[in-house]
Amino acid sequence: MANQVEIDYQQNYNKKSVLIIGAGPCGLSILKYLNNKVNVISIECKEDLGGQWCLDQYTEETHPNLKSDAFYNQHGCLQSSMYENLICNVPKSLMIFKDNPVQQGYDEYMTCQQFYQYLQDYCAKYDIKKNILLKTYVQSVRLAVNLSDEEKNQTGIEISKKFLVQIVSNDDYTQNSRYLQADYVVVANGHYSVPNIPYIPNKDIFKAETIHTHNYRENHISKFQNKHLVIYGCGFSSQDIFYILLKKTPQHQRPSKITVIGNEKIIGYFKQTKNYLSEIENGILTFLSPCIKKFESENSLVLEDGQKVENIDIFMYATGYQYKFPFLDFEKDKLIDLYQKRGVNYSLGPLYLRTFSIKEPNLIFVGILQAVLSSFQGIERQSILVSKVINEEIKLPTQQEMQEDFEKDYQEALNSYKDGNQYIKFSQVQGIDEFGYFRQIAKMCDIPSDEEYNSYVLKYLFPLYVNAFLGNYPDLKSSDVTSQLPRDYYPKSDNF
Q: CB under 8 Å to 367, separation ≥6 — which residues?
């Protein structure tokens, strides 16, 4: 049965109609820029807005009807949410949308709960919650022109727009199936929900408990007590876990040993860390490389250079996430390609400006970028660009011109990293310059480039990130950037 949000959207089909998948920061930003300009609806499978920042009641371990969950049915996992004691990795003054300062008294590095409330305040300010359809899952997105007569007849509706979107109840994907139509579909469902589990030979013989950071919750801390925890991966999620367990957890509740295995270059930096000298000297924390060759027994593994890691109690994958869009029909519509390496979807294309599907520019992706330093600037820039294109203030180039632009950008990414993932994952140290990309969008949109914001990020945040990547992650969480900025600073429209 349709609710009022859905009914209002259907009754305005005579207007240009935009369907947004997701109501996290990306979806909310798009919604804000399109609100009151077009007929727009955001579809969110969770009980409230916020995407990953809305803490799930259940995990795969505790869900009462896991097989009925619509997200799980298509992805093989539940949609992620941040864990309860997560603290953001960006200072509050550099992690917010323009003209929207945080509440007084928020921590320098906001907690998950504080940022979730920030998103609630953002929605209230712009009156956009009225356009969000909650507890609903997008089952499929089809190009109407490619539908067979049989498929059209099965819908029971007259199809008049470019996209036909099937939605269902997220609690039970077999319930309440119905259709919406749209001129544009904006994919803003995040890229941290489908865990990447790399293949390791002999997995069947390994009997120690395994977990991905995707499933980590505060209540797991007790299960690590006096255990040997092996963490495979050395990115920020890995660092955050052993930071919590070794620096924020009472000593008597900590693991007896943590072994971190990862990229040889990064692990080399970690071994020189200032922040964990006592843990390393006491054998509580060990950093190893290269990568894992195979599991050797029910509680041991072997690295590619022959080193062995034994007596493992818990094995945690901190190996990132994959890009997956099961609601798209890759055989009949073929609107994007997923680029793979060893079975992992690490990037996608062809996209113009990393946003518009070149094969069908009315299919739009916002938030797939992994900008290291200024992710929210990226989200908002993309949202402005998308809103201007949809409202016909900007005309996209020809398909051939967009394809040539994509090939140039992707080749630049290949030159930085052999599998091309730098096309999506920016890096100021190695890879594509995120600020150059945002300046390109600003120029196209005829808006200022916020060089004040950029200068603060490069001057204050960039050195902290470099230091964190060198193994000194605790320094990041104890730093104070806001006090070095102008009083009550936040990004402002005049500079944007």
A: 22, 24, 25, 26, 188, 190, 191, 379, 382
Strand partners, 180: 165
Is residue 386 within 8 A of residue 362, CB to CB? The reply is no
The CATH code of the domain at 197-319 is 3.50.50.60
Which tokens belong to 81? Answer: 């949410």
- 4-193+322-451 and 197-319 share one fold: yes
**Model pLDDT, residue 430:** 61
Q: Which of 202, 268, 174, 245 is nearest to 471 (CA)?
A: 268
Amino acid symbol at 146: N
Query: How far, CA to CA in Å, does 294 sit from each of 207, 231, 298?
Result: 13, 15, 12
How does pLDDT run across 339-359, given as a tens digit for each residue?
987 778 888 999 999 999 999
- Assigned CATH class of 4-193+322-451: alpha beta
